[in-house]
Amino acid sequence: MSDIVLKLSGIVKSFPGVLANDHVNFTLKKGEVHALLGENGAGKTTLMNITFGIYRQDEGEIYINGERAEITSPHRAMEYGIGMIQQHFSLVPSFSVAENIALGLKGSKISPKVDLVRKKVKDLAERFGLNVNPDSRIWQLSAGEQQRVEILKLLYMNAQIMILDEPTAILTPQEATNLFKTIKEMVKYGASVIFISHKLKEVLEVSDRITVMRHGKVIDTLKKDEVSERILAKKMVGRDVVLKILKKPSAPKKVELEVKDLWSRGDKGIYAVRGVSLEVKSGEILGIAGVAGNGQRELAESIYGLRKYTGEVKIEGETMRPLSVVSRMKSGVAYIPQDRKEVALCGGLPIYYNLFLKKPFRVPEFYLNPYLFNSSRLKRPSEQLVNEYLISTSSLNLEVKYLSGGNMQKVVLARELSLNPKLIIAVHPTRGLDVGAIEFVYKILLKARDNGTAILLVAGDLEEIFTLSDRVAVLYEGEIIGYSKPDESHLEEIGLMMAGVRKVKK
Ligand SMILES: Nc1ncnc2c1ncn2[C@@H]1O[C@H](COP(=O)(O)OP(=O)(O)OP(=O)(O)O)[C@@H](O)[C@H]1O
Ligand SMILES: [Mg+2]
Question: Is residue 279 part of a domain?
């Protein structure tokens, strides 16, 4: 018997104006981790959506264990033993972990006893090192924990082919390491895994083979030992990518953002930010490093007026009222939130509306009245933005929810950065972007800095912090535990502070 569990043969899928998959061939071996790599919009998610029965291919065949399979729905896919964790989760926030897993069980008309599910979930969680309490409500869980629930769902239904679409985009480095352990465990039990990621290091760490896609086509399938980060980047993008960007020394000027003794609570009602004071000057980037979950999100949301706080936030010397986003917008603050889909975009609106959602405060001529766009005036500037930010789309009228993950992020960036902001609050600005797009975003953020914008950058990835920041503050349990310099020689010091060790003053 052949050891190929899944074979995709000549898969073609087009959407109006795009050929998302162009005669794709792909095989997955038993017990293999096979990475799928490619630029934003290359067609990775589409290919996996076809494999999981969310879309139907226009042409081509799918074979499971050598037999032709008609995968007409996710239900059918699950019957074939295929499970998928999507780029954006599909859990019911008000249900418990166990209830969510019971809900997803294949073909069950009568829901199994939640008690039974709870017990099995506990066993699986232990065996695969997936630490989560079956009785927690989903809304109480961090993104990493929610992902563990999704993985448990797959294990519960005993999926043999597991598709993980950018699972690590939302994880802390520590959580990613744990996920890789889980993946290795799953493979040991005979499962096969398709792993999508833009992080080349991870791809090299976890996979056995790597397939690179570009513009809907498979460019190459390689064994891990045959490649390096540089080779992969070049295969993906079709040119050499600068993985390290040099920046000029900063020339900070007047204080743009001043935060004094800010306290704010997280979603669970406990203080997440505990007395933070900081300053960001025009022409500098202050990087906030820290393990995710130490108050970064709450800090950014408070400063932008999305979350209640006590203390003071001043922009250009003017005190902002808590919970007033409009006053921030009017003062020229741009915000790149960590949740583009929930916070930054209206999925059901066309791209060109999304590109201009914030303009009434800045460019009134784009509006007929505060609630109504002047569509005809938006077309040309949105075309310009789509070109400038290399947003890959077939049409400006496409609803944003149909864009690939990375291209959604580019829409947010294009909107926020094109406002010529005085201050940018950027939370994980390159999450979900391919290496080429990351290089591009780094360049525009640095250009904004050089033109005098103040930038507060929150990132989990220290490499990103080092590349962009002029100063680094480390956030630990809601407090700034110390400052450091953004270079490799301070790595150990920053690492220690991230673990809660205060800097000793000499
Ligand atoms: N339902 C849809 N309607 C119209 N176009 C679509 C739809 N789904 C995907 N596309 C388009 O197909 C192309 C491939 O998208 P896909 O999501 O597969 O890319 P991807 O490789 O997963 O990218 P990313 O790395 O950004 O997630 C994109 O141009 C996208 O806009
Ligand atoms: Mg995708």
Answer: no
Q: Which domain holds residue 25?
A: 4-237
Neighbours of ion ligand 2 (CB under 5 A): 45, 404-405
C-alpha distances (whole Å) from 161 to each of 51, 77, 135, 416, 489 are 10, 10, 27, 39, 43
The total of structural domains in the chain comes to: 1
What's the CA gap between 50 and 56, in Å, rounded?
Answer: 6
| 395 lies in some domain | no
Ligand 1 pocket, residue 403 CB under 6 Å:
yes
Q: Is there an atom of ligand 1 within 6 Å of 351 CB?
A: no
Give backbone dihedrals phi and psi of 496, rounded to 5 degrees, phi first: -65, -40
Q: Is 154 within the bounds of a domain? A: yes
For residue 41 and ligand 1, the question of a CB distance below 6 A is answered with yes
Instruction: Evaluate whether residue 269 is within a structural domain.
Output: no
List of the chain residues with pLDDT < 50: 1, 506
What ligand 1 atom has the least distance to the C-alpha of 409? 26
Ligand 1 atom with minimal separation from the 87 CA: 27
> What is the C-alpha separation between 495 and 501, in angstroms, rounded?
9
pLDDT value at residue 359: 63
Q: Is the pTM of this model over 0.85?
A: yes
CATH code assigned at 220: 3.40.50.300
The residue whose CA has the least distance to atom 27 of ligand 1 is 405
Ligand 1 site, residue 392, Cβ cutoff 6 A: yes
